[in-house]
Amino acid sequence: PAPRTVLLTGAAGGVGTLMRNLLPAFGYELRLLDVRPIEGDPDAVTADLSDREALREAVRGVDAIIHLAGISLEAPFEKILKANIEGTYNLYEAAREEGVARVVFASSNHAVGFTPRPQGDDPLIPIDTPRRPDTFYGLSKSFGEDLAQLYWDKYGLETVSVRIGSCFPEPTSVRMLSVWMSPADGARLFHAALSAENVGHTVVYGSSANTRLWWDLSSARALGYEPRDDSEEFAEKLIAEQGELEPDNIAHAYLGGAFVSDPPIWPY
Ligand code: NAI
Ligand code: 15L
């Protein structure tokens, strides 16, 4: 049967707020969790990913989990370790103990951020490109993908790991023209990831069907995802403001944009 009740972790964040508005139209009943209180939903769970008892209670009875909670940018290793590495482990343990069938894991392009971006006629980056994290943040997403593989192989807990590009209402940099995932396409992709059958552990890139796309969306399409948006309508304005990407600029040369520099610099 199709999943109905879904726990959305990180529900107070940017993507969480977009998704809690968009996903109910696909028929899901959402349970929300975040360390920050969520106004307007008295049933929302306010809990930290370090609280294993709270996680067990929060996952009890749900059909699936969309795991967005965590630190979403580069940060000191100790913080990434606690929120993203230990936190994701704690969530998977709770899911395993409570028999939750599937997780949709918000991975990131920064798990492969040191991959050179395609230029000219270069082929699109395949989904099985070697992982090359560009930050401790990207490293934590690489860990999450491996954790997901372990829980599938050992316990039969399914995951779709979505290497999200940039999910914001609009792209705000020239790089984002290539990696942008419109919120509406994001909801379509999360729906496909929740409802496709027999996913085992599947890794997909998460973006719209952008004219300037850098990666291969076929593993996402194989789940039934049909993107409808394209960032190209924003291209003229962004390029006029920021100029084209330059091959010699280190912040323009890799998938991860300016996350590859130390420290990461805006705009990425
Ligand atoms: P965000 O930073 O706006 O939201 C993350 C949420 O997680 C926040 O509401 C925060 O309070 C919560 N959180 C942080 N630590 C927590 C903890 N220890 N326990 C419970 N909750 C905690 O990030 P955003 O942009 O919404 O991203 C959501 C997820 O998607 C993140 O995992 C991020 O790494 C991933 N992602 C997002 C991309 C984007 O374009 N927005 C791109 C690639 C990945
Ligand atoms: C991410 O992983 C971040 O969470 C998000 O804030 C954006 O920076 C995005 O990647 C990006 O690469 O643009």
Provide a descriptive summary of the structure in words.
This is NAD(P)-dependent oxidoreductase. Pfam families: Epimerase. Keywords: NAD, Oxidoreductase. The protein has 268 residues and is α/β, with parallel strands linked by helices. It has one domain: Rossmann fold, CATH 3.40.50.720. The protein contains eight helices and seven strands, in the order E-H-E-E-H-E-H-E-H-E-H-H-E-H-H. It has a seven-stranded parallel beta sheet, sandwiched between helices. Helix 3 links the parallel strand 4 and strand 5. Helix 1 crosses helix 6, helix 2 packs across helix 3 and helix 3 packs parallel to helix 4. The radius of gyration is 18 Å and the shape is globular. It starts with a strand and ends in a 26-residue tail after the last helix. It binds 1,4-dihydronicotinamide adenine dinucleotide and D-galactaro-1,5-lactone. D-galactaro-1,5-lactone binds next to loops.
